Amino acid sequence: MTSPVVVSPDAPDLEEIRKCVHCGICLPQCPTYRVLGEEMDSPRGRIYLMRAAAEGRIGLTETFARHFDLCLGCRACETACPSGVRFGSLLEATRAQLRRHGPPPRRRLLDRFVYAVFPEPGRMGAALGLLRLYRRSGLQRLVRSTRALRLFPRLAAMEGLLGDVPRPVSLPELHPARGRRRGRVGLLTGCVQRHLFPHVNRDTARLLTLAGWDVVVPRAQGCCGALELHAGRIDDFRARARRLVATFADVDWVVTNAAGCGSAMKEYGHWVGEARGLALRTRDVTELLADAPLPLGRLELTVTYHDPCHLAHGQRVRQEPRQLLRRIPGLRLVELAESDFCCGSAGVYNILEPGIARELLELKMTRIAETGATVVATGNPGCLMQIAGGARARGLDVAVVHPVELLARAADAYSG
Question: Under CATH, what is the fold of the domain 5-102?
């Protein structure tokens, strides 16, 4: 029998596992349970499996691994849990044990590609340059007309996520504060964000300067390690965390505008002792802007807001984005039913598990259509791509934007 989970120093905490009282309150909040209806694909069922493995009653079999592969890591169960079980860290620790056995053969090549490219900004930029050529050369239209991608669902999912690929944008390393200076912050530009949504980083820096912050954008910064943490690649994650500590050593706050990055960085202290200080200084951009006297002009828009999982459930940041949007004159904010239910993006889940991701996206798009909004705001690049792709597929005429884009447009509209 394979070794039980407890052999590693990064094993799931058995006392944390035992906090689960199996009440089932988490079940209706779990996306995979909603889609599959299987007990072992619910938080309660997965915790049962963790405990059985930790106590040596079962091994790390392929069936065991599959139930954890299917989890999105959205952490909605943490919000629902009356016992306060930290399911996210238990999931990451369990995946760290499974990682020692390697990815399943059915997706080994894709796994290798994803983690060699996505967390490496330079390689990511090169790959997107090729994609830009693929789109503009007409090859994309040819490939889609043959429907050949139907034979490769994961490749089709990756190809279908991307709209236009913008040209690279280089931000200045220092953006001086305007008006009364409040301090100095460092901006994490991210991997996907810097390449696919560079205007979000630009708008973030501008709004922070309007709020009185000097904004530093270190050119040498790398990936925060979020994708690797969620995949159980703990050693790679730790190495990235340590490099980021050195990069952002002389700022009051480190600001993120990507929910997944912020959630991972706020948990650095759990995994990397020397990164605890950085974790305590990490804030989502909406947290730092929430009390800032921003000059905002009128926008006549009907907007709905989708809660990114790792902002709502991971960081417990819910009200600040809504408060900021409500401050824009003329903007009508319509609440989205099940706003904090996962859209199916979940890092690279929509590439690795496209079938379930597509079902979750359909649920999300139905809810968005019900609002009648013309704009969907959400604070994570994965959600931006997933929901925009869903809107294109459904023919739904909505713009999908980061909240800072609307705030920046309102600042442009301000006449004093």
Answer: Fumarate Reductase Iron-sulfur Protein; Chain B, domain 2 (1.10.1060)
